[in-house]
Amino acid sequence: MSKLLANFGVAITRPTDQAKRLSQLILKEGGNVIAFPLIEIVPLNNYSLFEHVISDLTPYDWVIFISSNAVQNGMPRMVKSGIPAHVKFAAIGPVTAQELKQFGAKEVLIPNTRFDSESLLDLPEMHEIKNKKVMIVRGVGGRDVLAETLKKRGAEVTFAECYRRINPQTNVDLLVKAWQNHQLHAIVITSSEAMRNLLDLAGDASWLKQVSICANHARIANTALEHGLRVWVTEAMGDEKMLATLCKLPV
After folding, report:
1. Which candidate, 23, 83, 53, places its Cα nearest to that of 243?
2. What band does 115 get if pLDDT is binned at 50, 70 and 90?
3. How do residues 51-64 score in pLDDT, each as one tens digit?
4. Burial code of 68-89, b = ≥16 C-beta within 10 A, e = fewer?
5. Crossing angle, helix 218-226 and helix 192-202, to 10 degrees?
6. How far apart are the first and last CA of the chain?
7. DSSP state for residue 6 in the 8-state scheme
8. Residue 105 DSSP symbol
9. By the 8 A CB rule, do 243 and 235 touch?
């Protein structure tokens, strides 16, 4: 039985540790994986501000974690500082929620469908937020749509930033050579920042317009479409859905 991705080259732009499962799925279907992380998660140089912000969680009603990176870099310090029993947790998606539970969170609010800030904001609990105090745990310089919307609904919002994102790539030669050798057919992009980093490196290069961009959110896809790229969007989040999308691409 032929494998669906035989001789099909896929570049994965996620941080290395977060690309492992999708890489395994692609390899199992006979595809070739090109590791090309466009985001690397690194610790802060100094955690004194973060530790000051989380030093007393007593006034807070909700603590929202933007990503699993936020949990990994923030939760150990929060647990050490002490988390009052009344504090409620929310997360962008199930992976982040599962990691929170490993740190002792019993219940975590997550969206029902797509896992992003907008879907979290659609939940009834995020509408009943007037006069509530909310802490958002994230990386430095994340999106502001969640905070701004909660503020408009009457919440008091504080950011707790516990990691940084950097672009470890300096050029796209690896991808260009792979494409020239007919070894690159698709690029997986799962964050807007990674999409911007790819465009910064490649510009309006003609080769990029010959490669399928596989995104897991319409926001990412729209950015790619604005630059004339070929884009495919997964039906939902998750590595299996991304694999299913890759398997439908034209060779």
Report:
1. 23
2. confident
3. 999 999 999 999 99
4. bbbbbbbbeebeeeebeeebbb
5. 20
6. 18
7. T
8. -
9. no
